Amino acid sequence: MPSQSVARVSTESGQRLINRLCKHWAHKLEVDAEQGKVVFDGGVCLMKASADTLQVDLQADDNELLERLKGVVASHLERMAGKEELSIDWQ
What we know:
globular; TATA-Binding Protein
């Protein structure tokens, strides 16, 4: 059964983060930077930026994979943010 989780991250750099993540993952995953989409084996990450928020919708084939992908996406977002501290709260 598919599982999903959503995070809303306060940042004014949302589009930059989407672009950096998509570029970073493009060498080994299917990505669409225009749509903010990254396709993992067994999961999909959709990102959308507004003026002050980055919304991250994550879907996975099961709860175990969802938890693993949440960690992967969060750690990569934090790395791409550089000195900007992000608060990523999955719902």
